[in-house]
Write a structure and sequence with these properties.
This protein has a single domain, classed as Ferritin, core subunit, four-helix bundle (Ferritin, Up-down Bundle). It is 86% helix and 0% strand. The protein has five helices and no strands. Helix 1 (4-32) runs antiparallel to helix 2 and helix 2 packs antiparallel against helix 5. Bound molecules: fe (ii) ion.
Length: 160
Amino acid sequence: MKNLEALFEHQLQDLYSAEDQLTKALPKMAKKAKDAKLKKAFEDHLEETKEHKTRIKEICDELDIKAKGETCKAMEGLIKEAEDFLKEVDDEDVMHAGMIAEAQRVEHYEISGYGTAVRYAKELGHKDIAAKLQKTLDEEYKADTTLNDLAEKRLNKKAI
Ligand SMILES: [Fe+2]
């Protein structure tokens, strides 16, 4: 990687891998969640995540780079951690609180990644791409807020 354009491309491939892994992990989380609102939050974000993956693919096509090529090891680790947690927990309310904690780690990771990508896109003069990435970033923030509300309003208290 010799310049910001190359670094930007690397970040896009990393985000593509992260979104791809999430499209496989979120259905499992939705299936496990017994709380209706939490289940819906996972299902809704799965649909958004599919769209996020499509957006990155479109951006890569536009830049004439392969979307595939990187494995996002951080996302691999976050998903593994969530899976391990689900194996260990045996109380349903604690499971819900913990699932939110794991999912918010994922959202924060994505917010960081997209925040960087938006900035690079702007600095490189890719105005339309920056707008597309910003749309995803806004949706990641929204998903994080939804999870936060669920935790604060009900699910943490139930787990006490
Ligand atoms: Fe996403």
